[in-house]
Task: structure prediction
Amino acid sequence: MKRNKLFTGMKNTKVIFLMVAVVGFLFYSCNKEEETPLDNTLASSVIGTYTGTLKSTATNQSSPATLNVTLINDSLVSMHCLSYNFDSTFTMQLYQNYDSIMVCYTGQDFFAEYGHNRNNYDFCTNRQSG
Result:
């Protein structure tokens, strides 16, 4: 009888040790660190803060402006432009055109700006979308 109790006790100890190891591994593997963009993505080459001037065509006056470009994913960025009497945020998709990085609107903004049916072709990613 003692042999069975000893064997059962060792079995329980092994199970408990295994559970602690698995739970510890899960906590370690699910640790979320601050994400930084990869060096080889389109977005990594444009994110940051830009400064310049905006000029009004109506008044012909210039004012200093700041553009903050933040990462949404590897090809989608949010651009927040802030100046005197101007504060707007745009979500743009990036695509590469030879040696240049271009932007285009996404979703309904794409249709509102360009006003045509794309015939199931996504010009931003150069692939069929339907």
User: Anything to note?
Assistant: The chain has a mean pLDDT of 72. Residues 43-128 form one domain. The chain is about 30% helix and 40% strand.
